[in-house]
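Lab notebook, bench 4. We co-purified these components, and the gel suggests they stay together. Before we commit to crystallization screens, I want a quick structural picture of the whole thing.
Request: model the full complex, all chains together.
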Amino acid sequence: MLYVYTCNLHQHLKVMGLEEEIKQKEFKNKQQRAFLNLIFTAGHLSLAQTRFFKPYHLSAQQYNVLRILRGQNGNPVTIGLIQERMLDIQSNASRLIDKLEEKNLVIRIVCPKDKRQMDITITNDGLEILKELDDKLDSNESGIILTDEESDILNDLLNKIREKK
Amino acid sequence: MLYVYTCNLHQHLKVMGLEEEIKQKEFKNKQQRAFLNLIFTAGHLSLAQTRFFKPYHLSAQQYNVLRILRGQNGNPVTIGLIQERMLDIQSNASRLIDKLEEKNLVIRIVCPKDKRQMDITITNDGLEILKELDDKLDSNESGIILTDEESDILNDLLNKIREKK
DNA sequence: CTATTTTATATGTATATACATGTAATTAAT
DNA sequence: ATTAATTACATGTATATACATATAAAATAG
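Here is the predicted assembly.
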């Protein structure tokens, strides 16, 4: 018999939370467990980020683009470079810039030396939003409450994971 | 003057890859650096996952649902429980089950004891796909090449991050 | 026992994402 | 110099996601 009616069983299962769950069986090895934990935790933090930026009508990716632009100190940056430097790879820099342009946070002009390229620059409005966010986005809000040492270890492990590929 | 035409500068910027980039300035502190690295790395791995599952016409989330169902050894599970146990929180279990049902990987029936609930069960087709994937999804494919010890450390750090909230 | 509240799931909507394809400008080839 | 190949960016499409709202069943209140 393929399926049994055991609604009452659900009560029992609900008792163990996600934290218990992730620590548990169904993992081939420690590597897979860490991997799934990574995806899971990043999902959590990513959601927290989304909600954090929402009042500013920004997505996390849009914020990242603004940060990249600010990092250039007024020098224009191409779509391609933004694409390369963005935290989420292979996303659509073009459309992200659309959104930021609509909000007057960036300016997009055709690069005169190569008309295929677009030169993107952050506006004063963009800089102001970043300034506001700088104050709010301290380590507490970012959701990481590790010591400096732990942060370094985590950072190194993540680098090791990425560099493999 | 707000924007300068410096297309040539891009060449220079492109030289440093993402790996260099993430290690660098623009971070308030080690915590924020680790946080952004986490989002970034998880994005990488998540993309790798997406591509890994694509030939099977599954998303990573759909795979996770199937794993949860298999874990119940044939006992049905409600939408709500799936929602709770899924690795990506707050996603739409209802629509995930839609997709899996279309592919005949799960069966959805109204729970007779509580007609609001749906009892979801994995089918033999679903179990077979999982079996195929089990073989492919070894630690190598999952993108983590840490030692056991490192995996444990990473796991602990991630738990610490999540538990804070 | 009827009305209200709560719960479980489904659906609508706006935005995001992955990926394929399109288009125009530049570079390379002959 | 003209054609072909490459590059930079934009757009179309299918799917995913966050969140608000809807619907129907069950629990609770009076």
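Residues 59, 61, 88, 90-92, 95-96, 99, 114-117 of chain B lie near DNA strand D (CB under 10 Å from a C1'). Worth comparing against the SEC data before the next meeting. Chain B has a mean pLDDT of 78.
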